[in-house]
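Sharing a chain and its predicted structure for anyone who wants a worked example. Both blocks are below, sequence first, tokens second.
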Amino acid sequence: MSTITILDGGTATELVRLGFPAINSDPLWSARLLHTNPEAVKQAHRNFFTKGSDIVVTASYQASVAGFVEHLGVTEEGAVLLIKRSVHLARQAADEVSKDLGIISGCKNGRVAGSVGPYGACLHDGSEYTGNYIEGLSDKELQAWHRPRIGALLEAGADLLAIETIPCQREAELVVKLLECEFPSSQAWVTFSCKVSDRDCWNL
């Protein structure tokens, strides 16, 4: 019999339910709360673990070093620490729920997936679904943008990476190549935004 793994729901959706609707129009989306209200982020993760999630995904989809520097006014070092905080908060949530439930070693099989959104997510223009940015970036530029976030998530202890809603095959291949060459012990899944007409996209 195959094992079923239960993922969490949308972190941003849960944060809106918890009282933070402004993130929907924020250029950093839910990642801003890593800086302004980390306890809310942890509570969202706790809620998912409490309801039976085996894996929660960090609030780093829209996080990047450049984005945090621009929109929060932090240093590059501070931006990296905020990305690492996304993993620490998810891990703390797992530990706290584990303790509440009386489970000794982790929240059930609670694991943390570090969210890696596409380059277009930082542009805050919907291009993470269209891939319109891809022709203007070299392979080197794309990998240089992804590298510090991936490194921070793994250094902070993410069990695996959730490479999410990638709209371009080339970007997905470059991220996977980066993992193979520079982070060979990492594990990851990749999901895509797939265009099915001139107007519609869905995630796979």
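Comments welcome. Strands lie at 55-57, 111-116, 160-166, 188-195, 201-203.
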